[in-house]
Amino acid sequence: MKLKILMLCCIMFLGAVSAGLAQGNIDTSSQTTTPTISPPASPGNLRAKDTPNDNGHSITLSWDLSSDDGSGNKSVLGYKIFRSTNRDSGFVERGVSPSGSKEYVDLGGASAEENDYMPNNSDYYYKLRAITADSMIFAEMAIFGPIQTTGQWYNTSRTLILLFVLLFTSLMVYFIVKARKGANLFVRKLAGIEAVDVAIGRATEMGKPILYVLGLGTAADIATIASFTILGRVAKKVAEYQTGLIVPCNDPIVMTVAQETVRASYLDAGRPEAYKENMVYFATSMQFPYVAAVNGTMLRELPATNIYMGKFYAESLLLAETGALAGSIQIAGTDEVAQIPFFVVACDYTLIGEELYAASAYLGREPVLLGSLKAQDYAKAAIIVLAIIGMIAANFHWNNFTEIFHITN
Amino acid sequence: MKRQIPLAFVFAFAVIMIIQYFVPSDLSMNVNEFLLKWIYIIGIFALALGIWSLIRVSYMKIRLKKPDWGYSIITLAGLFSMFIFGFDYGRHFFSSEGLKNYMFLGFFDNILIPIQATMFALLAFFIASAAYRAFRARSILATLLLLSAMIVMLRFNPYLGPIGEYMEKTASWLLNVPNLAAKRAIIIGVGLGGVATALKVMLGIERAYLGKD
Hints:
The structure holds two protein chains of two kinds.
Chain A: H1 2-24, E1 44-50, E2 58-64, E3 78-84, E4 92-98, E5 103-107, E6 124-131, E7 138-140, E8 144-147, H2 159-180, H3 191-206, E9 210-215, H4 222-241, E10 245-249, H5 252-268, E11 280-282, H6 287-301, E12 305-311, H7 315-325, E13 329-334, H8 340-346, E14 349-352, H9 355-364, H10 367-395, H11 399-404
Parallel strand pairs in A: 9-10, 9-12, 10-11, 12-13, 13-14
Antiparallel strand pairs in A: 1-2, 2-5, 3-4, 3-6, 6-7, 6-8
Chain B: H1 4-22, H2 26-63, H3 70-86, H4 102-134, H5 140-154, H6 163-202
């Protein structure tokens, strides 16, 4: 009997302890029991505003950190954000912001078909919960709202870009007009482009074709567009010298444009009958099968010259090394910074970055194209001056100046 | 006229896209999305031209018995068999169900993927041979390049002992100061060149892509 009473007492004691602990795991909605572990300090001053410079559907929240943020045994590990269209109910979790963070951007869907659609000009209410390692211990703060989202008609953070584009366009137009009037615009020599004529001559002497690779870019890439212009010039020379030309393409649209470009060059050279549609063909749209196709062509046809102009990725070295093994003269140009070293190592001449874009002006020698090059030079000079001022400003903490160039999105 | 109309289209759409970049409203986003969809639509039509080009070139190689013409037979066989399996022997012409075809998946997973992986793996050997050529100390600049490359490569070596720390610092400096400065200079140049080329295309100065009348 004594044993039974003792066991009963033990059970009651354990029950009381566990109940106490459970009540200690604070749920702030329950105020009927005294907690044994108090919740962390609540974060303060929840603010919300419509996210600026967007199409709406987004609210930016900010708050003051809880004093228990990241410290103490009630350490706050993060902040859960809840949203509702009603002040009193229906709050849905929107995300978690880690401890130490004071801001969260609640980005909803822009169309009614999306699950988290967040229509503009509707009222939204927010609440914030500081969470700890124990899901039952947290602190919530007062609800904020209503707040509405709206879309903007001008992205103010891009004003600097707009100004730059306007200035640069004006500069370009000025130099184009000047060049048209007959001003002598000096353009330094581009060894890679100077070598094109020599390479075509060599191909003619050897009776071997020229392989022109446009890279993996699409017709919308600037590098590919610049490459079309160079292809046009190369094709014209090839037509004049009566040499063969092979242009394997990775993209069907690029192929179509390249076919038109080459055809136009053969017409310009007065040899339309020499143009064959099979000169420019589609190999495949996949990266490494394309490498296999081009490398196979290099080893079978043994072209005298390989020209790589456009956008290249990991395939750059595979192509250029195979071309070097095949003994071809190689000229490359790309605006992909990571691929430039590979081309420099494996090719005889490499156009670095913007030289690819300058090549068309250099080849054409047309005043309008040279004028645009001059505008680029002046813009670069301005950037160098600004970079020097920026360095000085950053070292002397002239934040007002450095902030001018800070573009948020 | 054949040139004016496309140039007018290019100018109009370029202006629309520039405005779109500075206007973040829903209307602007929808216009952007709509125009991007057009790129896909044009791409699908162009794909047919691409496939036709591939068939024609391969057929000509076979017919004229050009060097290694046997590969063209494999190309055409691969193209048509994947076509047949992809449509599930004609059972699924208008849905993607055919892509679950056993043979289609088998060819894709067991032939195409390993071949692609093999091509990519070859890059390691090409890098070795390219590095051998690049790092020959033939001049002062080439020697500096060799030394820099050695420092950058050796920094992860666990057997360097106390020198390792200095190696790490030197490598970080090389990567973050001279290397990054050169990279940024190229990127700024590319950015300016890109804007200039885009403007030239928009204003009809650069028009090689249009072909001939």
